[in-house]
Write a structure and sequence with these properties.
The protein has 149 residues and is of the alpha+beta class. It has a single domain, classed as Nucleoside Triphosphate Pyrophosphohydrolase, CATH 3.90.79.10. 24% of the residues lie in helices and 32% in strands. The protein contains 4 helices and 7 strands. A hairpin with a 2-residue loop joins strand 1 and strand 2. The longest helix has 13 residues. The termini are far apart. The mean pLDDT is 89.
Length: 149
């Protein structure tokens, strides 16, 4: 017969501080000639007012590319032929951790207007790296600038 109380005594104590949730995020680098599409995060959202690449949270059971297509289409109306994973990074904010998957969206079609009421802009690479963006995006932008995509 198993001694449950003895087993419980050997387990490490449970942390009183719950771990912040981790979200998988698919983001699209959408390039048209020498410009990239960015959107401003809406009021009331996490990091409201910051600029970001189009994309969003991956739903449970959803592939990264499916989430990317859904989010980019919902936010901007843009459709694209294919997406190539360029970089993956993880960033911990105090209230959440994000696992960011950055894709190059190939052959984008559509004008990139903010379909959810957010402001959008087509910016040069120099403008892109100077925008106020979430901290989790910084390493990718540094790599992008170094590589001159």
């Amino acid at each position: 017969m198993m001694n449950v109380s003895g087993m419980l005594a050997t387990l490490p104590p449970m942390s009183r501080d719950p771990q912040p949730p981790t979200f998988r995020i698919a983001l699209g680098l959408i390039q048209r000639e020498d410009r990239f599409l960015v959107a401003r995060r809406p009021e009331g959202s996490h990091l409201a007012g910051a600029w970001e690449l189009p994309g969003g949270k991956v739903r449970p059971g959803e592939s990264l590319k499916t989430a990317l297509r859904r989010e980019v289409s919902e936010e901007t109306g843009i459709q694209f032929r294919d997406a190539i994973l360029l970089h993956t990074d993880e960033h911990a904010y105090p209230e959440r951790t994000v696992r960011l998957h950055f894709f190059l969206c190939r052959d984008p079609e559509g004008n990139g207007s903010g379909l959810e009421g957010q402001e959008t802009r087509w910016v040069t690479l120099d403008e892109l790296v100077r925008l106020e963006m979430p901290e989790g995006n910084r390493r990718f932008l540094e790599i992008l600038r170094e590589q001159h995509v």
